[in-house]
Structures are given as structure tokens and as C-alpha cells.
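We were asked to recover a plausible sequence for a given structure. The inputs and outputs are reproduced exactly as logged, with field labels preserved.

PROBLEM: sequence recovery
POSITIONS: 155
GIVEN STRUCTURE:
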């Protein structure tokens, strides 16, 4: 992956709806080489897909929280299967440190958060302990991975 690829990725991160012609024009290239580069990055897995970015608040989710979960030692696979299917869990990360997993959850209100924590997450397979941190506001939501790769000398 070279500097041109990283520049193309940064542009696609900002607006994935651009046509190959528009993408080529922005970077002073012709359409065919841009198309080939983008296809190669898709095949290599650098581009995992294209999606609309939705606003959680506009969709009625007023509470965003992070739940650290500690499990019994033999419950990871069962826990992960339940988490994968749960609609309120936006992201799940296996972690090091005091907890085993960090869940990023969205809820409509505090009542929904209470139900989620007490009736659902606490009852997931192997859960021993949870600790919840509620986000009061988002300071930074996204950062360009292509820009980070450029800054770290990938390109």
C-alpha cells in the first residue's frame, strides 16, 4: 500500500459515495487505475465494506454506555454467541485487565439501560460482574484510519 492508496482510502472514509470518476478527478488520476487500486484494497481486506453512518440520537437512542464484563473462566464462547445476537450491543471487545470484555451499548432511556444491565447482560452466560460507564457526550467519534496509517509511516 503506497501513499496514493492511503490518500484514496482517506477520501473514501470521508465520502464512500463518490464515483470512481470523482475519486480519480480529486486525486489527479484516471478512472481505471483508481478502480484497480480500490478493487485491490477490497480484495486485500483494507476496505471491509461501505455503509451509511447513522446518528444514534436521531434514531431515539439517548444513552450510550460502556459495560466492562468479567466472566467465569469457561464461559467465553457461550457469552460471545449471546452478545453477537444482542441488538443493544453495538460493539464487543475482548480485553486485558480487570475485565474480560468491553461492550458498547445503546439504549433509548435509563429504564431501558436498567433492564439491559439487570435482566439481560447480568444473565448472560458466565457473567460474574459488570461495571458500567455512561457517556455524557462524545468528544471524538471518528478518526481516519488512512490518516493514522500515513502518520505512522505505513504509506
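RECOVERED SEQUENCE:
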Amino acid at each position: 500500500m503506497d501513499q496514493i492508496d492511503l490518500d484514496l482510502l482517506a477520501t473514501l472514509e470521508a465520502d464512500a459515495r463518490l464515483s470512481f470518476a470523482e475519486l480519480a478527478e480529486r486525486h489527479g488520476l484516471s478512472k481505471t487505475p483508481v478502480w484497480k487500486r480500490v478493487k485491490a484494497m477490497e480484495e486485500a481486506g483494507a476496505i471491509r465494506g461501505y455503509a451509511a453512518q447513522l446518528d444514534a440520537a436521531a434514531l431515539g437512542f439517548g444513552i450510550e454506555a460502556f459495560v466492562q464484563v468479567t466472566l467465569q473462566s469457561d464461559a467465553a464462547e457461550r457469552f460471545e454467541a449471546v452478545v453477537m445476537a444482542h441488538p443493544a450491543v453495538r460493539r464487543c471487545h475482548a480485553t486485558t485487565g480487570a475485565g474480560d470484555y468491553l461492550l458498547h451499548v445503546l439504549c433509548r432511556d435509563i429504564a431501558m439501560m436498567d433492564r439491559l444491565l439487570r435482566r439481560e447482560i447480568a444473565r448472560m452466560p458466565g457473567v460474574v460482574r459488570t461495571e458500567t460507564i455512561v457517556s455524557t457526550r462524545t468528544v471524538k467519534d471518528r478518526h481516519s484510519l488512512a490518516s493514522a496509517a500515513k502518520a505512522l509511516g505505513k504509506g
